[in-house]
Amino acid sequence: MQRIVVLNPKGGSGKTTIAVNLASYLASRQQLPVLMDYDPQGSALRWVKKRQPVQPWVYAIAAFENDGRTTRSFQLRVPEGTTHVIVDTPAALDSREMPEITRTADKILVPVLPSDIDIHACSRCIRDLLLVGKVRREDNRLGVIANRVRRNTLTFQSLIRFLHTLGIPVVATIRDSQNYVRSAELGLGVHEMKSYIAREDVEQWEPLIAWLQEPAGPRPAAAASPAPEGPGGQGSG
Questions:
Q1: Burial of 59 (0-12, 13-18, 19+ CB in 10 A)
Q2: Are 163 and 173 in contact (CB under 8 A)?
Q3: Rounded to whole angstroms, what are the CA distances from 75 to 3, 60, 79?
Q4: Which helix (H) or strand (E) holds 89?
């Protein structure tokens, strides 16, 4: 069973969008994913409740709730046969909580938006994961997602240059697409939408899926993120 934590204390970075679309992808591939929603807003939980019976099964746990009638471990138990646990963390997560939530994570995904505020917040988040959470770069557990980007813009170029200074792989570059808005409204993922509508979005998930399948340890040289292109180029993720 693989445990994937989607984390960024900065609100609005797209954690839930990444989490639910990853669950959708896995479910559509005959896997048995569990969405563990730690965010008091309960957005991932609402997304699961919108899904129709004919859609691939996604199990959800309201981890933000505290039921005094049962133990915490019983509340967070997952069904037998679960293949993946996807943890949607809350905004404003305190750095002191990071060791507990990341200790058993096989992969940690940090989505970041192309803005000065978000870049600064991402820098602080990565620092806390390395220093407080004791996540080591060489373990290949930590990856950054450039989220809601518009290529060939100055903010995108600035974001990509910053991400490459971190020494953390940029495992995906996700465009700013209305398909994610529609998928949230319908309880779908982009992988479940008509191919002619979401083809570009689906293609952008391929490097992320490949990275999630990589084992722990140093990344193969061929899989390392290339350096960003100069002004006018698109960069890479």
A1: middle
A2: no
A3: 17, 11, 11
A4: none
Taking CA atoms, 227 is separated from 134, 144, 165, 169, 224, in Å, by 26, 15, 10, 11, 9
2 strand-pairing partners: 84
Q: Tell me how far CA of residue 62 lies from CA of 12, 85, 87, 185, in angstroms.
A: 20, 13, 11, 19
Mean pLDDT of all residues in the chain?
87
- Distances in whole angstroms, Cα of residue 65 to Cα of each of 37, 62, 69, 173: 9, 6, 12, 32
Q: Cα–Cα distance between 199 and 188 in angstroms, integer?
A: 15
CB atoms within 10 A of CB 19: 27
The pTM is what? 0.87
Q: What distance separates the 2 farthest-apart alpha carbons in the chain?
A: 58
Q: Ranked by mean pLDDT, which of 47-51, 88-92, 97-101 comes out on top?
A: 47-51
CATH topology of domain 2-221: Rossmann fold (3.40.50)
The amino acid occupying position 38 is: Y
Q: Which residue has the tokens 């963390």?
A: 89
